[in-house]
Amino acid sequence: MSAQPGYPQPYEDADNAPFLAAWRKGVLALQRCKGCSKAIYYPRPMCPHCWSADLEWFEASGKGTVVGYGVVWRPNHESFQPEVPVVLVEVQLAEGPLMLSRVVGDDREKTRSGAAVGLVAMPDAARYPLPTFRLA
To answer: What predicted TM-score, i.e. pTM, was given to this entire model?
Structure first.
């Protein structure tokens, strides 16, 4: 799978490589701390809650709730121009962490705080370089 040509691509390193590899398969992978059992996002080498380096990857549900959102009419990268308005969201994932992402789809302008969202599924997920959501 490869993202839409022209989209800015995420920088891949040792910390986020499993996260990006999972997304290329349409899966949202998160880390979980074996020390305190908390789910973690964004990928990192140690738990931000208890500082343990004993982390594991797991497949998240891909479900969440919009905490806040913004509508962008003048994106700062030309690849997003055909998709205006771009709806940026802060999502509280069902597993606990907060994630910044986008809501896509014809009904994206109906996005509100408290709205349920679900991960874009394959094959549509292949066009986005990072996890992306639709209204549930």
So the answer is: 0.91
